[in-house]
């Protein structure tokens, strides 16, 4: 099973100036098989992106919120702790 899904942001802490870019990265401590990554904000159903990295260029006011990544290997899935993104 998958475990230890971690999420980190550049800039650190998810505080981004308006118009800047935000890069979110997702990693898995344990898990085998082909991993698929999806990115979500808040309770939104549609993924914002796929892959271990999510890049948001030109951050706007409506981009703030809680982001998390979900990792699946076909057999099991795990989610990261949400990261609160603040637009300054």
UniProtKB/TrEMBL annotation:
InterPro entries the record matches: Ig-like_dom (IPR007110), Ig-like_dom_sf (IPR036179), Ig-like_fold (IPR013783), Ig_sub (IPR003599), Ig_sub2 (IPR003598)
Name of the protein this chain belongs to: FCRL2 protein
Domain Ig-like: 1-86
Matching Pfam families: Ig_3
Domain of life per record: Eukaryota
